[in-house]
Structure formats: C-alpha cells, structure tokens
C-alpha cells in the first residue's frame, strides 16, 4: 500500500527566504528523496511556479499519485498512475 508523503515546497529554501533557480538541482534531489518511490505525494506551501513544475516533472515515474494542495484550490490531482 502506498504511503502519503507531504512536501512543503517552501521548506526546501526556508533558510534563504526565496527560492533560487541556481539551486534547482538541490531542491529536486530533496524532493525525490522525501517522496520515495511509489508513494502518493502532495505538494503544498508557498513557492514559485517554476519549482512546482520542475517538481512535478521530476516526480513523474517516481510517485504513484501527485496532488497539489492549497487553501484556495483544495486538492488538485496532477497525475494518478495507481492501478485502482
């Protein structure tokens, strides 16, 4: 059974106050490490659109299901590769 993993995008760059494009590879390594393989992943938190898009691309083929969650939109399914 897949585990649900929540990744707060803002936590990836919290010590810098703003995400830096020059650190994208580090952010993606962190995201992939936190997400694991075959889990349901929820991306949330403040962050630039480019970081969310890069995260979604990096998690395709690793996550079973990817969801974006915000107080405004609620949960938005990005992809679902579960056999159910």
UniProtKB/TrEMBL annotation:
Protein's name according to its UniProt entry: CRISPR-associated protein Csx3
Top-level taxon of origin: Bacteria
